[in-house]
Each structure stands twice: as structure tokens, then as C-alpha cells.
Amino acid sequence: MNVIAKRIEVEAQAEKASNSYLMSIVAIIVGLPLPIVNLLATFIFFMANRKGAYYVRWHCTQALLSQFVLFMINSFGFWWTVNIILGHKEVDNTYIAYLFTVILVNIIEFIVTIYAAIETRKGRHIRWWFYGGLTDALVKPSDRS
């Protein structure tokens, strides 16, 4: 493979890896009130790239893991809020603290996701604190890489 073709392939992989993070950002904007939208969009992108190059698979997996955890956190808050609206529960300090935490986690996730999208597009490997090790355990290099 010549140098130009190799460089084009590396750029394409970096773009796909970056898109795995951008997919979750777009999903957040489109489906803000429903936590499942983010997870589904990231999962669909993951499935489309699960047999791609190692770099792309790795970043798609890391993005999916982060969205799964965010889905769990957001879903709990969503249904707690629905129960309050329906009158089954009351607003208390625990709910307010959880809601504050959910908002803070979402803001941090949004910022880190944008950063990861930018850096992976440049070809830099970004490992998130919790998800990086888990992603390493799930995604192994193969002959396709």
C-alpha cells in the first residue's frame, strides 16, 4: 500500500471514530427528554462499525459504554420525575440532589464527548478514565486492523 492510500485510510478511520462520539451528541440534542434516544443512536452506529478497523471499533465501543451508563442515570431520573408529576412521589432533598447530579454528569459527558470527537478526528487515541479499561477488555485487535 502506498503512502497516500495509507494516509487516506488512517484519515477515514479517524473520521469514523470521531463520528461515534458525534452521534451521541446529535442524539442528545434531538432526543433530550427521552434517555433511550442517545443509547439507540450510539448502538446503531456501533453495529454499523463493529467489524471495522480496531481504532474505529474501540472508540465506538467506548462511546457506547458511556452512553449506556448515562442511559441508566438519566432513566432513573426521568422515571422519578414522571412519578412526581403523576403525584405518586413528592419532591424532596434526595430528588433535588439526584437531579443536580444528573445535570452535572450530563454536562461533563457532553464536554468530554466533544473533546473526544475532536481529538479522535485528529487521530489521537482518547481513553476515558472508567470506560478505557473496560473497552480494552471488550475490544481486541484482530487481523482486520
Model description:
With 145 residues, the protein is an all-alpha fold. It has one domain. The chain is 77% helix and 0% strand. The protein has five helices and no strands. The longest helix is centred in the middle third of the chain and has 32 residues, at 54-85. The chain starts with a helix and ends in a 7-residue tail after the last helix. The mean pLDDT is 83.
Shape: elongated
Structural class by helix and strand composition: mainly alpha
* Fraction of residues in β-strands: under 5%
Q: What share of the residues lie within helices?
A: over 70%
Total helix count? 5
- The counted number of beta strands is 0
Radius of gyration: 18 Å
Q: What is the string of SSEs from the N terminus onward? A: HHHHH
Question: Largest sheet, if any?
Answer: none
Low-confidence stretches: none
CA distance, first residue to last residue: 14 Å
- Domains (count): 1
Round the mean pLDDT to the nearest integer and report it.
Answer: 83
Characteristics of this structure?
145 residues, 77% helix
Strand and helix layout:
Blueprint: H1 3-30, H2 35-49, H3 54-85, H4 93-121, H5 131-138
Helix pairs in contact: 1-2, 1-3, 1-4, 2-3, 3-4, 3-5
Summarize the structure.
This protein has 145 residues and is mostly helical. The protein has one domain.
